[in-house]
Design goal:
The protein has 130 residues and is an all-beta fold. 31% of the residues are buried. Strand 7 and strand 8 form a beta hairpin. It is built from no helices and 11 strands. The strands form 2 sheets. Strands 2, 4, 5, 6, 9, 10 and 11 form a 7-stranded mixed β-sheet that branches. Strands 1-3-8-7 form a 4-stranded antiparallel β-sheet, with no helix packed on it.
Amino acid sequence: QVQLVESGGGLVQPGGSLRLSCAASGLRVDAYAIGWFRQAPGKEREGVSFISTSSDGRTYYPDSVKGRFTVSRDSAKNMVYLQMNDLNPEDTAVYYCAAVFPTTVVFGNPLWALNEYDYWGQGTQVTVSS
């Protein structure tokens, strides 16, 4: 049984940082491409980072978070992380990690389509407020 469990969310002041973790069981994070998504109240879920399998390891970010967010993977711990710096209130959302089997992904491109992902975590709340 595959499980993805996010943690590390919380309340942070504008300009602050958080590191989210995604713990995987039932699959190897280095064999899957991993996306981080977020969903703010009243808005659609959107992708904020994508990391290819470890054989490629490319990372992608939308302009809204580029330069502030960094995704990484620890294969030994079977974890994926999202380091978020210089947070602002617009980053407030529930953050999810999701895994997709690499054959679904076009090489050299991120995958942002929600319905293509095979597994999702339950989400962790991030609130940026003073």
